[in-house]
Specification:
Layout: H1 10-18, E1 20-23, E2 36-39, E3 44-45, H2 53-64, E4 74-76, H3 77-83, H4 89-97, E5 101-103, E6 106-107, E7 113-115, E8 120-122, E9 125-127, E10 138-143, H5 160-163, E11 173-175, E12 183-189, H6 192-199, E13 207-214, H7 220-228, E14 230-232, E15 235-237, E16 241-244, E17 254-261, H8 268-274, E18 279-288, E19 291-292, E20 301-304, H9 307-316
Parallel strand pairs: 3-20, 12-18
Antiparallel strand pairs: 1-2, 4-7, 5-6, 5-8, 8-9, 10-12, 10-20, 11-12, 13-17, 13-18, 14-15, 16-17, 18-19
Helix pairs in contact: 3-4
């Protein structure tokens, strides 16, 4: 008789389960096939550009540059405490609510702005505020379908934060979101002001998507209406531009388009096509403002912009290399 396998050590089993995803499939006779384990892995960090000697010198200079906080510059106290490593913003808000934070000897208030020379204490201990004075960081990720842009999910689905452990550093902010079934360019940064410049409607930063629809191609009247504006349940929406892509699937029932948006409402692209009873079978963000999805960045991989690339992005928004207002 074959000896039964010995039970796994509890911790080892937990690690094994966390590293695998179990799925089942149907055989040709309709029966359920044995469960198949699919190994999960972290997203791969890649280098897309090899710098020459002059670029290395320039990068070093940018990396060592320090930006003096602008005269009169202020920061919300919970954000400043979080950036200084005290706790998360939510936990800092709780400390403030409980009266455990003081500014210049007086109890702090939620939403209070502090400046460089303010004296901040938490539980009676002085806190050295770390102002954003050095080069900000920017990460681009080629998100595949089937991942949430959320730090956690009650249903246990994969999140981009599970895939990129580096993002557990809470100084990284996601610039916008992508739906669970949408792929493409996702950007993270340590600069709150840069994230605001990308996302706030008043800056009208372009978002470019490749869209595949199933069924008949768009008519000229539909294209005209999508560009002039259609009414959705949350207001009027329009594409800044809409172009049919030359390279199409061999299946005549699929048609690819490139669209440009100046805002980022929830499921906006899909809902605009659904207005005409058209099904979006694939959606990919290919550009967000001055940042393109790198052609060599494969799905599930991420890339951190080098110092020169970060400086160019900041310059395009009129910010310092630290991602603060000039």
């Amino acid at each position: 008789m074959t000896e039964a396998p010995k039970p796994r050590n509890g911790k080892a089993a937990a690690r094994k389960n966390a590293a695998t995803n179990t799925t089942a499939s149907k055989t040709t006779d309709g029966k359920t096939a044995p469960f198949e384990r699919v190994e999960r892995s972290n997203a791969k960090r890649v280098k897309l550009h090899r710098q020459n000697q002059q670029e290395k010198i320039t990068s070093q200079r940018i990396r060592e540059e320090r930006v003096d906080p602008k005269t009169g510059h202020s920061e919300r106290i919970s954000k400043a405490l979080a950036m200084s490593g005290v706790a998360s913003r939510r936990e800092c808000d709780n400390l403030i609510t409980q009266g455990k934070v003081t500014v210049n000897g007086k109890p702090a208030e939620l939403g209070q702005q502090i400046v460089v020379h303010d004296r901040v204490e938490v539980l009676g201990r002085p806190i050295r505020i770390k102002w954003q004075d050095r080069l900000a960081r920017i990460i681009v990720y080629h998100k595949p379908e089937g991942e949430l842009v959320s730090r956690s999910d009650p249903e246990g689905r994969d999140t981009v934060y599970d895939r990129i452990p580096l993002l557990n550093n809470r100084r990284f902010l996601a610039i916008g979101r992508l739906d669970y079934n949408t792929s493409g360019l996702l950007i993270f940064t340590t600069s709150g002001e840069l994230a605001n410049r990308f996302m706030h409607p008043r800056y009208e930063v372009e978002r470019e998507y490749a869209v595949r629809i199933y069924g008949d191609p768009l008519t000229s009247d539909q294209i005209k209406e999508l560009k002039s504006g259609i009414m959705l349940e949350d207001g009027k929406a329009s594409f800044k531009d809409l172009i049919k892509m030359e390279i199409q699937d061999s299946d005549a029932k699929n048609h690819w388009y490139k669209v440009l948006l100046l805002e980022g409402r929830n499921r906006e692209v899909r809902r605009m096509f659904e207005h005409f009873q058209l099904t979006v079978s694939r959606l990919m963000r290919t550009r967000f403002g001055p940042i393109d999805l790198p052609p060599r960045l494969k799905r599930g991989n991420y890339y951190e912009l080098n110092e020169i690339e970060v400086a160019k992005v900041m310059q395009s928004f009129g910010l310092t290399v630290a991602g603060t207002e000039r």
